[in-house]
Amino acid sequence: MLLSIFRALPRHNNCINIINSSGAQTCIALRRYSLIANHPEVLDEEERWNGHIPKGFVEVNYARSSGPGGQNVNKLNTKVDLRINVDNAAFLPERVRERLKVIKKNKINSEGELCIQASTHRTQYQNEEDAMERLRNYIKEAYVIPQERKIKVDRSEKSERDRLTDKKHRSTVKQGRRMSFDKYDK
Q1: 84-88, long-range: CB within 8 Å, 24+ apart, which pairs?
Q2: Quick one: pLDDT at residue 81?
Q3: Number of folded domains in the chain?
Q4: What is the rounded distance in angstroms from the CA atom of residue 81 to the CA atom of residue 71?
Q5: Cα-Cα-Cα-Cα dihedral of 97, 20, 1, 79, to 10°?
Q6: 184 domain-assigned
Q7: CATH number reported for the structural domain that contains residue 62 in this entry
Q8: Basic residues bias: where (predicted)?
Q9: What integer pLDDT is reported at residue 37 of this predicted model?
């Protein structure tokens, strides 16, 4: 059940106007972030992301929260359930979508939707901002290219020779420290 309808405000380019099922309006600011992944040595020009999540890809549902809220806890729908279909997120490069599916596999349901729930704040607006911020952080994390692990190789012949030579030397040193009891046995 989709409780909200997204419409972009005509006079604000960086805002989304949300109308929920009760007719209340909320304006969510879409802040732009500078990402660690925006450095030229990390990504190609077409893979850079400015932090903007297009409104058509996000589905937001509201429910009653079990968290803080005082007298309003049983009256208002402050819990936010944000979902985005990772496979259909065309604003992300394919590499980032695949990495997002790997690193957040426990948060992706059987339909391929990344589910984020936020209910820590008392207001719907704050919870929605919190969920959007978490989504941005997940995407930032997926943009970072993991370093390749170096596989340990076997020792070279020279290092193996040196190891055996050192081992022999330590053995002779320790043998020299031993006391000989042969002269006392007679």
Answers
A1: 84/53, 84/57, 84/58, 84/59, 84/113, 84/114, 84/135, 85/57, 85/111, 85/112, 85/113, 85/114, 86/112, 86/113, 86/114, 87/112, 88/57, 88/112
A2: 93
A3: 1
A4: 22
A5: 70
A6: no
A7: 3.30.160.20
A8: 166-177
A9: 39
Report the residue count for the chain. 186
Chunked in runs of 10, what are the mean pLDDT values of the chain (186 residues)? 37 49 52 40 57 86 76 80 91 90 92 92 90 92 86 84 95 86 65
Tracing tokens 């929920």 back to the chain, one arrives at 20
Q: Provide the token pair at 143.
A: 């943009």
Residue whose C-alpha is closest to residue 15's, from 23, 25, 1, 24: 25
Query: What is the value of pTM for the model shown?
Result: 0.56
Whether the CB-CB separation of 134 and 119 falls below 8 Å is answered with: no
Residue 94 counted as domain residue: yes
**Residue span of the structural domain in which 81 resides:** 34-143
Per-residue pLDDT at 68:
61
